[in-house]
Design goal:
364 residues; alpha+beta; 8-stranded antiparallel barrel; 5-stranded antiparallel β-sheet; 21 strands; 32% strand
């Protein structure tokens, strides 16, 4: 098939490169097409594995942050609050059976005996036992003569089956448990040295009441016979191992003395407090002498010092009647009051209005 020059029309063979007539190139190689403009680079999306790694790293970071916050919360001391004080008192009463029984049980009569004999003239005891008869714990009394030279009539009360079931040892108990219904004192925390303490006042409620007591027509009268008939108690608490716990009076006394002496030693060199103008000129103050605390340790007060187990601390003493306020040197506002009895044989130590221990004067 013949091919023709596009310029002069002369035929040429298919493989010719130039026209034989006019010399025009007839089979020139086509110009290369311009290269396309580079398109914007799209962001590289992570693969499934990379995405899992990112999620895992983010999760680990979140766990670390949350765990750090939880650890800080766990390490922080428990705040003084209604809930923390209620928890501490509830735990104390649940663990201490003796303390619980003291609140819930009656021990004013030998309830463990099969029979209780009451003289006819003992109207108070008879009235109480008649209440228990109405509650089903004792059978109706039987009058008997005591015989002897002077015959006397007695009333015999026999313990019934419900009464036996209500006994716990030799005590008659109205319930198995008790819990805090209302508590106060958490807003009056005091520092005794490095120890935080408070005196809580709690109103309690009975739990798991005995069936006979719950149905008794004299329930209110029976409650009044309990050691704490109003079901209100005052208990000392301290922050121990970062948790509020009920402590006994001996522990409170120890915390008080340790706190006062510790602060006094730490503050030595800070200068003497203003000396007391009301101290006696010659004999000192009413607390001068040796005293034994309830927990057994010996305290001695001079006109210008406190000696606790051989350790002497300088102090100032302010006297107001029978009350002596002791401010150990360098202790700032920390002080304790000693209220001496009228006969001078006993005294009460209190700090911030809170009683911590009883002292008995030691005679030489």
């Amino acid at each position: 098939m013949a091919h023709f020059c596009t310029q002069c029309g002369t035929a040429h063979v298919p493989g010719a490169r130039f026209c034989d007539e006019c010399g025009k190139a007839v089979n020139a190689a086509p110009s290369p097409a311009p290269a396309p403009s580079p398109s914007p680079v799209a962001p590289v999306k992570p693969t499934g594995v990379q995405r899992r790694h990112l999620l895992l790293a983010g999760g680990v970071l979140a766990v670390v942050v949350v765990a750090g916050g939880a650890l800080a919360w766990l390490l922080a001391p428990e705040a003084a609050s209604s809930s923390s004080f209620s928890r501490a008192i509830d735990a104390h009463l649940a663990a201490d059976e003796a303390a619980r029984d003291k609140l819930l049980c009656l021990a004013n009569l030998p309830y463990q005996k099969e029979e209780i004999r009451v003289a006819s003239y003992d109207s108070s005891t008879r009235q109480w036992l008649d209440i228990l008869v109405r509650s089903g714990l004792y059978s109706a009394p039987v009058e008997q003569s005591s015989g002897g030279w002077v015959a006397q009539s007695q009333f015999v009360y026999a313990l019934a089956a419900p009464g036996k079931a209500a006994l716990r040892g030799d005590k008659l108990c109205v319930a198995k448990g008790v819990k805090v219904a209302k508590v106060s004192g958490y807003d009056q925390v005091r520092d005794l040295g490095e120890q935080q303490v408070a005196m809580a006042k709690a109103t309690l409620a009975l739990t798991d009441e005995a069936a006979w007591f719950a149905k008794s027509p004299d329930r209110a009268l029976i409650l009044q016979r309990l050691p704490d008939g109003d079901l209100e108690v005052r208990l000392p608490l301290a922050l121990v191992d970062k948790q509020w716990q009920v402590i006994d009076q001996a522990q409170m006394s120890q915390a008080a003395m340790t706190g006062v002496m510790g602060k006094a030693r730490a503050g030595q060199g800070a200068g003497m407090l203003d000396k007391l103008k009301s101290v006696f000129s010659f004999g000192g103050h009413p607390a001068v002498g040796k005293w034994q605390a309830a927990m057994g340790n010996v305290l001695e007060f001079t006109r210008d010092s406190v000696i606790n187990n051989g350790t002497s601390t300088k102090a100032t003493f302010t006297t107001n009647g029978n009350t002596v306020t002791i401010a150990p040197e360098g202790a700032g506002e920390t002080a304790m009051d000693i209220i001496v009895s009228d006969d001078g044989s006993t005294a009460q130590i209190s700090m911030g209005g809170m009683r911590v221990t009883t002292l008995r004067r030691m005679r030489d």
